[in-house]
Specification:
Elements lengths: L4 E6 L2 H11 L3 E5 L3 E6 L2 E7 L12 E6 L5 E6 L10
Parallel strand pairs: 1-4
Antiparallel strand pairs: 2-3, 3-4, 5-6
Length: 88
């Protein structure tokens, strides 16, 4: 099985820890004062303190946007054309 790595910004690391570690029961991995990794059901998520926002990127086809229980925005994109993945 291939695993995915998903990284995104959060506005409150303590709240994100409470959501992913406490509410969802994900095991915390490496961390610093500005980011934390979690084992997200066999996949890796990395939460970083920083500006929060959703922006459209070149090559996107279908986009699903929502907020996690801690209020952080999540954006998941489906690409039908892999050639556009690294388009500038």
């Amino acid at each position: 099985m291939s695993i995915f790595h998903l990284a995104y910004h959060v506005d409150d690391l303590a709240r994100a820890r409470a959501c992913y570690g406490g509410l969802l029961g994900c095991t915390e991995g490496r961390s610093t004062e500005t980011w934390v990794d979690f084992n997200f059901f066999g996949h890796q998520i990395s939460l970083h303190l920083g500006p929060v926002g959703l922006t459209e990127q070149p090559g996107q086809q279908n986009t699903m946007s929502f907020h996690d229980p801690a209020g952080n925005p999540i954006e998941i994109n489906e690409l039908s054309d892999m050639a556009g993945v690294f388009t500038q």
